[in-house]
Amino acid sequence: MKAIVVREFGGPEVLKPEQIPDPTPGKGQVLVRLYAAGVNPVDTYVLSGRYAFKPDLPYIPGMDGAGVIESVGQGVVDLNPGDRVWLSQTVAGRLQGMYAEKAVCEARHVHPLPDDLSFAQGAAVNVAYVTAYRALFDRAGLKAGETVLIHGATGGVGLAAVQLAVAHGAIVLGTGGTESGRSLVLNQKAAYVFDHHESGYEKRILDVTDGKGVDVVIEMLANVNLDRDLGLVGRFGRVVVVGSRGRIEIDPRQSMAKESVITGLNYWSGGDEGVMRAIAGVTAGLKDGYLKPVVGSEFPLTEASQAHQKVMQSGALGKVVLVIQT
Ligand SMILES: NC(=O)c1ccc[n+]([C@@H]2O[C@H](COP(=O)([O-])OP(=O)(O)OC[C@H]3O[C@@H](n4cnc5c(N)ncnc54)[C@H](OP(=O)(O)O)[C@@H]3O)[C@@H](O)[C@H]2O)c1
User: Terminus of the chain with fewer CB atoms < 10 Å: N or C?
Assistant: First the structure.
């Protein structure tokens, strides 16, 4: 099969296609023919070799994928060849194995892809929706009727968070850096949208909450916004740090009278149970049709390096996806 095989850490230029032997499923495992793989910012961090998680070389990148089951190993009863599926992990381990024509997964990491969703949409589910779900519900404890600011709503996690929060009955405010991105967020039924590059946009956010501030902020760029977020949340507000790319100085005094909270979020930190619970919630939304992943751009597998450049550029419009076969 064809796969992107990383033999040295570095920039996008080290992502090179190779022909390697097909994997075979063992007991309790499933072989999936992948049609699409999702590209996440974390793929670029891992590739650099400077991330907290460093795979052994060589490795195949990618933790999001979708395709069709080709064969099942001994003891797999609920899954069958021909099933359309999206994947949450391969047997290669965390953060690996999806930039390839085939992948082997444990059966519990294989989830049904509804017929009305494309494989590209299926490859846009795992990281974006599990992260958004855990941020909104496990960390922020978002309740129906509360206001939530998705600070960075135009990307993979942001749009997933908008859809999940709207479906939950929250009042959703989103931000985006481009006109087209902000239109996309409004199309996903956010109540208000703001430009995170416009000076003074925080005052407009406070205005639409009648000065009270939002109940929850889901933050995609904490190193830029965390101090501002402490001014944007109201009494007992919760700020969830999903993304951060550096350091920032904050004024902790802003949290005292409001008794507001800053908490981090990591896809994996809820353990297997946390991830599987989020997957159950996301699976229900995909099946019932209120969650519809948004794909912003597609690249062939052989252009994985261009996809890595794209995912780190501003002007997000949903997920960046590698098309592996059509
Ligand atoms: N903690 C975890 O487990 C976890 C999981 C997944 C992702 N992440 C991290 O979360 C972040 C978002 O991930 P993603 O997959 O959604 O990435 P993405 O698709 O590349 O989206 C990036 C988002 O950040 C927004 N942004 C840019 N400048 C901003 C600013 N000044 N203020 C607020 N938002 C701004 C972008 O908006 P415009 O492009 O419209 O300006 C876009 O909405 C990344 O840093 C990623 O590494 C963390």
Answer: C
**pLDDT of amino acid 174:** 98
Query: Are both 192 and 111 inside the same structural domain?
Result: no
Nearest protein Cα to ligand 1, atom 21 = 155
Shared-domain flag, residues 104 and 161? no
**Residue 286 covered by a domain:** no
The candidate with the shortest Cα–Cα distance to 29, out of 88, 94, 73, is 73
Q: Which amino acid is at 75?
A: G
Smallest CA separation from ligand 1 atom 10, residue: 243
Ligand 1 atom closest to 224 (CA): 31
Reading the block at residue 314, the tokens are 């501003």
Which residues of the chain register pLDDT less than 50? none
Residue finishing a domain among 248, 264, 280: 264
Q: At what angle do helices 126-133 and 271-288 cross, to 10 degrees?
A: 110
Give the domain extent around 66.
2-125+293-323
Identify the three-state secondary structure at position 26: coil
CB neighbour list of residue 6: distance below 8 Å, 6 or more residues apart: 14, 15, 16, 47, 57, 58, 59, 60, 61
Asked if 50 and 27 sit in the same domain, the reply is: yes
Report CA(21)–ligand 1 centroid distance (Å). 35
pLDDT at 266: 98
